[in-house]
Design goal:
The structure is a single chain. The longest helix is centred in the middle third of the chain and has 64 residues, at 12-75. With 76 residues, the chain is mainly α. It is built from 2 helices and no strands.
Length: 76
């Protein structure tokens, strides 16, 4: 990137070229940020689904334990 003084010294075609370079750099940075955010969102969703699955299994095990205890109490 050029400094402000260097940009002031450039002629019109040079300014347009530098403007295009700056716009492309900005676009590249925005795309990179979007991809990173998308990846983080995707990983967050996967983690959320994994945690939900673990909680579901825990709940099922607790229900089975409760049912087993109830059956053992009714048999005694």
């Amino acid at each position: 990137m050029l400094t402000l003084n260097e940009l002031r010294k450039l002629e019109m075609p040079g300014l347009e070229t530098e403007l295009k370079k700056a716009k492309m750099a900005q676009l590249g940075a925005e795309m990179s940020l979007r991809m990173k955010q998308s990846k983080e969102t995707h990983l967050g969703r996967k983690q959320g689904k994994y945690v939900a699955r673990i909680l579901t299994v825990k709940n099922e095990l607790q229900k089975e334990d409760k049912n087993a205890k109830n059956l053992s109490h009714t048999k005694n």
